[in-house]
Amino acid sequence: MIEIKNISYTYMKKTPFEKTALSEISFGVNEGDFLAIAGHTGSGKSTLIQIIAGLIDTEIGAVEIDGESVKNKSARQKIGMVFQYPEYQLFEETVEKDIAFGPRNFGLSEDEIARRVDESMKLVDLDESLKNVSPFELSGGQKRRVAIAGILALKPKYLILDEPTAGLDPKAKKNLLAEIKKLHRAGVTIILVSHAMEDIAALASRVIVLAQGKILFEGTPRKLFGQAEILERAGLLPPPVTQLMLEIRRAGFPVSTEIITLDEAENEIKKFFKSSQC
Questions:
Q1: Which of the chain's ends, N or C, has fewer CB atoms near its CB within 10 Å?
Q2: Residue 31 and residue 22: Cα distance in Å, rounded?
Q3: Can you count the helices (H) and strands (E) in the chain?
Q4: Strand runs labelled E in 45-140
């Protein structure tokens, strides 16, 4: 379990540019969770995940990973973090070498490294034939998956994904979301950072909304998307399908606005027309 206890953080303290990024943030992430952290630019979500991953030292409060401070190396090794546009971090000659870089730095045997490369490639649906291909010859979506595979090869217990679909075309985005869902089903605890509500609706079981460094909402995506005032205060929009149902309701049709998938919207509209014909 990850425990975030009363975290506060201020940038450029005691200067004219002082800015509070986080204020008294507390929540937990259980094993097997799929937690989304949402918020507009400047809400504090990037600072928060860097503190969780141990990349920024806390000023006030603490982060514990399975009861151990994240300041300890053994705790930090349980967390893998994939930054926004992780493909910019690719640098090796081949896909295989790039994925193997982390495990090799851990001093693992060549047999264990090879096994981890194979497992990680399968988890993100990268074909074995790509092993000896330069990562720079791949598509944007494939590069993203190579970068994620490199983190997975380190066997993290908890995986943090920062805007993983940013900049991808619709097909690559759909494929990557499917792979992330597969990782969660395989037992990886995931923290997804995103301002794309449709991604959160498709993947997360719980969502935390940040605004001006504070928690504005914590609950299920379905509950969040039914609260237009919360979304407006956070500078966020519900998924397009939810926006559609809100417009239909404003037009005078008594349909539910707690809709987060196209299938649900279709069933809700069919149910309305069926009841109106009775």
A1: C
A2: 24
A3: 11, 10
A4: 60-65, 68-69, 79-82
